[in-house]
Amino acid sequence: MPPDSREDGLSGRIVISVDAMGGDRGPAAVIGGLTEAAKRIPDVDFILHGPEEELTRLLAKRADIAARCTIRHASGVVTMEDKPGQVMRHGGDTSMWSAIESVREHEATVAVSCGNTGALMALSVIRLRKLPGVNRPAIACLWPSRNPGGFNVMLDVGADIKADAPDLLQFALMGTSYARNGLGLARPRVGLLNVGTEDHKGRAELKAAHELIEASAGIGQFDYVGFVEGGDLPSARVDVIVTDGFTGNVALKTGEGTARLVGDFLREAFNASFLSKIAAVLALGSLKRLQARIDPRRVNGGVFLGLNGTIVKSHGSADATGVAAAIELAYRLAKSGFQERLAARVASAAQAGQDAAQGGEEDGTSE
Amino acid sequence: MPPDSREDGLSGRIVISVDAMGGDRGPAAVIGGLTEAAKRIPDVDFILHGPEEELTRLLAKRADIAARCTIRHASGVVTMEDKPGQVMRHGGDTSMWSAIESVREHEATVAVSCGNTGALMALSVIRLRKLPGVNRPAIACLWPSRNPGGFNVMLDVGADIKADAPDLLQFALMGTSYARNGLGLARPRVGLLNVGTEDHKGRAELKAAHELIEASAGIGQFDYVGFVEGGDLPSARVDVIVTDGFTGNVALKTGEGTARLVGDFLREAFNASFLSKIAAVLALGSLKRLQARIDPRRVNGGVFLGLNGTIVKSHGSADATGVAAAIELAYRLAKSGFQERLAARVASAAQAGQDAAQGGEEDGTSE
């Protein structure tokens, strides 16, 4: 099977597990997003987790979508303030736990939640367990870029606060697998985030990772472009940016904050004078397209990689449009058979790495 | 003397040492910037370092400014590709070395260079030496913000690739000193960059720094707002953002890259249709003001803190406008007596910290 093949023999309808609770805008926004996504995707059904009475009432207004939803009752809600440890010990009755359980029981291929990231990652790790061969799971995000597809992948953006060289190599393998199946790139280009592009720059673990990733490019069927800098995150010379979860999280939030700042300044500029207000009306179509290009809701969905099951984390503040984007991403990954391909990729890379260490080098199996 | 006093008894003209070479646009851009700045600042003179013949020729066209410049001949140039170690060993004949020497010899108060950052920092450390009490120098940058003054301070953005808790405390002290003298803030608010705002988040050294900085807020005469995230860099709830040089460098370049991406998308949007082109003409004034607000040239100038002398690092790609901004920043710092105030602040904080460790807490002297 060619590595970029999207056809994988999966048939039948895709089932997505959805945590209806825990987002800032409550279950109505989640059901709104689910409805938007369902209109565009005919072959998807949902298992919806949360308080049965409330969800039944919200779905009562939408007979078309209700027919495609199974409600799974869960009375508890994980709040944004809950500590991951508490949720792991006492969260058995929550909608978040229940949503993950549907993936664990193979009732659904992917789960989507707008809830507390730390709790969602902690629960996902203890309930789904790490994939064989993976030391540290990662959260991958999409980043608006100058590439033809419009997005780059960056990971880890916050699953953990550190990563050593072998972890960073696994991030490269998992990130390329995501780029193949989520963005349709046959041979992704990988860069390692650093404070300069010269080989001698950066921390010791980055120099070690630099060599490890370079040596694994053949086996992993990706191209390694070497070190990249913060300014390269939207660059067209790279598709997958690898970094530790601390740096990635700061970069992600810095980028979002900067885009928001420029957007606010732009709005002020158009409100500054009579002429500029007329200009805003004339340019409305173009400005709307611009807004869509940098709209964080369009890239909504951090994907948890490295577990026995795929979890899509939607922004806590996501509205219906944001939730719909996260659900469509979950659908795309489920449809491509991403989870099985990623598992095979990690396993074969570990095997190939062992073979290479024994002196030979072997092409990995397709993903 | 009150801590926010700008009047400090310094009199006479300010002398700034300028490295004419090493920038991407050559000495003409540097002399252009120097001319722009000199027009706006009557009480500044320059020592200009570089090849005498070339500089004399460039200055010949500008008699007004030539009278305020002393040329100091240096035949060598530090290129962007030169390794800091090489420059430290063999860079004695370079304009960069010579520019630092003028500060070392107290001929000039501040030096400005557009050259290679790594080499400039390495040379500055060996020639000027670290301030007593400072373990790790830092580079501070200005960040466009929603605060009334329009800027926040972030440090370290790349002097070093790591920082432990006592280093981060020193960054807080040096950053507040810079905010007082560079931005005129009487009591700056300090935040520590992390992946979340809850006390339990982040790496061990960040938790330790969190407690150290909190305990030093009284002595250091700043307010500590606790952990901040990447999205808070332009926030109005903080003035000085403290982080290690690896994270700060990635954040700085990510922010610049994002602003550039949005700017490019905006230009494309205005070129998309006939109507949007008309709109661009109508909104020209407002858009130019917007551009000025986010123009990286306006915030040009990373300041090296923690040495026996102040160095302003201009962007390598700075044009005349960028160089002028760096020179005006250097002038503001020189005029305020920043270097002496910073040295006193670091020394008194170290002393006060020792006193506090012995059980008492004492208000530091003004800066």
Automatic annotation (TrEMBL), chains A, B:
Molecular function as annotated in GO: phosphate:acyl-[acyl carrier protein] acyltransferase activity
Record keywords, A-Z: Acyltransferase, Cytoplasm, Lipid biosynthesis, Lipid metabolism, Phospholipid biosynthesis, Phospholipid metabolism, Transferase
One cellular component (GO) term of this entry: cytoplasm
Gene3D superfamilies found in the cross-reference section: Isopropylmalate Dehydrogenase
Extent of the signal sequence: none
Catalytic activity: a fatty acyl-[ACP] + phosphate = an acyl phosphate + holo-[ACP]
Acyltransferase keyword on record: yes
Bilayer-crossing regions: none
UniProt-annotated location(s): Cytoplasm
Pfam families from the UniProt entry: FA_synthesis (PF02504)
Pathway involvement of the protein, from the record: Lipid metabolism; phospholipid metabolism
Biological processes, Gene Ontology terms: fatty acid biosynthetic process; phospholipid biosynthetic process
UniProt-listed Enzyme Commission number(s): 2.3.1.274
Assembly information from the UniProt record: Homodimer. Probably interacts with PlsY.
Function: Catalyzes the reversible formation of acyl-phosphate (acyl-PO(4)) from acyl-[acyl-carrier-protein] (acyl-ACP). This enzyme utilizes acyl-ACP as fatty acyl donor, but not acyl-CoA.
Matches recorded under PANTHER family: FATTY ACID/PHOSPHOLIPID SYNTHESIS PROTEIN PLSX (PTHR30100), PHOSPHATE ACYLTRANSFERASE (PTHR30100:SF1)
HAMAP family, per database record: PlsX (MF_00019)
Family to which this protein belongs: Belongs to the PlsX family.
Record-given protein name: Phosphate acyltransferase
Organism field: Albidovulum denitrificans
Lineage: Bacteria, Pseudomonadati, Pseudomonadota, Alphaproteobacteria, Rhodobacterales
